[in-house]
Specification:
single chain, alpha+beta, 6-stranded mixed β-sheet, 5-stranded mixed β-sheet, about 25% helix
Length: about 250
């Protein structure tokens, strides 16, 4: 499947790419490019850009010179970080503590991507880190935790793994429009009331970001919601999962 770049308006582009599990099954991945009020650009997540998509990104960003930062918001999405650093050598790279451990060849900022310092640097964006579940799970196979990013100007939500759309268009008729990551239950912290904490966080997020129009998730299709549709879909997913998560 060829990489594609989608212009979602107001200075937000979502790039849909390929990621093969075990080199076989393509579950897809993504990154997003945002034009700041300053006229400069940032990426959300790293992806190895090739072909026409790379050409378009380079044309938008003055051959990459205007990219000031890459915010790697999912601790387990590390595969393309080193290549991204080569492609955009002048950019500041932000990541979690796991990024620094897994890709030490990249010169990482001392400020962690989930820090208040980074959030304050980009007032065009709103950030929310998962609650009740591990942001960085001690189990490398559990990827439900992430830092979610909302771009109000384009009403676009960038999310890795935590929330998903149905895995295939044909399933959208029988599945909810949004799904919680299947490892969410296993990602719960070993503390009291964490299931409730997670569900309450997701519920609040549904309300706060109810205007979401473009839902950009890593291993899902890009989907769009009418006003209030995202809120309704996420609340439905949370309420369905709440009994099991609160019992865990």
């Amino acid at each position: 499947m060829a990489d594609k770049i989608y212009d979602l308006g107001a200075g937000f582009w979502n790039i849909r790419g390929s990621f093969r599990l075990g080199g076989v099954i393509d579950i897809g991945t993504h990154c997003s490019l945002i034009k700041l009020e300053s006229g400069r650009f940032i990426f959300l997540d790293s992806y190895t850009l090739t072909g026409d998509v790379r050409d378009e990104v380079m044309a938008l960003t003055n051959d990459g010179q205007d990219v000031e930062a890459v915010l790697n918001v999912h601790p387990f999405h590390t595969v393309s970080c080193a290549q991204m650093a080569k492609d955009f050598p002048k950019a500041t790279f932000y990541g979690s503590s796991r990024h620094k451990e897994q890709v030490p060849e990249v010169e990482w900022s001392e400020d962690l991507v989930e820090s208040d310092a980074v959030a304050k640097r980009y007032p065009e964006l709103e950030f929310s880190i998962v609650e009740g579940i591990h942001y960085i799970s001690p189990n490398d196979k559990i990827h439900a935790g992430s830092l979610l990013v909302y771009h109000p100007a384009s009403r676009s939500l960038h999310v890795d793994d935590t929330f998903m759309s149905p895995p295939a268009k044909i399933l959208e008729a029988v599945l909810p429009e949004l799904l919680l990551h299947p490892t969410t239950k296993h990602a719960l912290k070993d503390e009291p009331n964490v299931g409730k904490q997670y569900c309450d966080w997701a519920t609040q997020l549904a309300h706060e970001w109810r205007d979401t129009h473009n839902f950009c998730a890593a291993h899902s299709s890009l989907i769009t919601f009418e006003v209030g549709g995202f809120e309704k879909a996420l609340l439905k997913a949370v309420e369905k999962a709440r009994p099991k998560l609160e019992k865990a």
